Amino acid sequence: MTEADAIASASKPATVTSLVDELRALGLDDGMTVMVHSSLSRLGFVLGGAQTVVAALHETVGTGGTIMMPTHSGALSDPSKWQNPPVPETWWQTIRDEMPAFDPALTPTRSMGAVVECFRCLPGVCRSNHPTVSAAAIGPNTTALLNDHDLEDRLGATSPQGKLYDLNGHILLLGVDHGNNTSLHLSEARSGLPATVTDAAPILIDGERRWVELKHLDDNDEDFATLGEAFAATGNERQGPIGAGVGRLMRSRDIVDFGTEWMLANRVASR
């Protein structure tokens, strides 16, 4: 969406003040622990852009709240599996040899959006140590959410999504639907349906860059939006306007437990 499209889609500019009012009306409140997935362009014309959205989130949950966002970096993976776009096979070994190792402070996100990149770079924000599916957080529950993210349990029990479930935290979707809800990969892990696949990534071990093979579940988000529609019908998801877009707020445990049962009823095991 262009800036002109964003202006055309909005009746007025979204500001920190207006976004805080809308977030509070949705149910986000002081002291909450919340994982945020977002699309800035879907919120219409936001005065100040991603910085304004991040500021509104901080003001809404306050210093006693914890904000977390997915900071995935999918390019740090084996090039033989790249599809969007693929690269020539003659490049694969060069990529394996030369791709910089994951660095929580430096590695940029890929396809996560402007709000996530703005948030990731804020002073005080920490990031989990997974080369492809990290998360970043700030607030009192940061350590509990980010520590001990097992490299071969990408989005399962030891992941930040798993820790959010343990804390009975919230999930906030800003301008996106459940197709972007990474906590549904926790539902996949709990269902036991996906097969295990092998990938690889450049990581630092004792200060030395190494190309390391990693096993993980073959996660698939193709039916997440459909699953999300079924979950919304249960009444456990609050919806409301956020700028020119729609916000959705729910408990992590509610959507993950529902998602696990839905997958067991609607998917076929791939193993």
Give the topology, please:
Layout lengths: L2 H7 L6 H11 L6 E6 L11 H12 L4 E5 L21 H7 L15 H7 L5 E2 L7 E4 L3 H5 L13 H7 L3 E5 L9 H8 L4 E10 L2 E10 L6 H9 L5 E5 L2 E7 H15 L5
Helix pairs in contact: 2-3, 3-5, 8-10
Stretches with pLDDT under 50, minimum 5 residues: none
Count of DSSP-assigned helices: 10
**Helix content range:** 25-40%
**Averaged pLDDT:** 95
Strand order of the largest sheet: 3-4-2-1-5-9-8
Which H/E pattern describes the elements? HHEHEHHEEHHEHEEHEEH
Shape: globular
- Provide the β-strand percentage band: 15-25%
How many domains? The number is 1
Q: Tell me about the largest β-sheet.
A: 7 strands, mixed
Q: Assign the structural class, choosing from mainly alpha, mainly beta, alpha/beta, alpha+beta, or little secondary structure.
A: alpha+beta
Distance between the termini: 40 Å
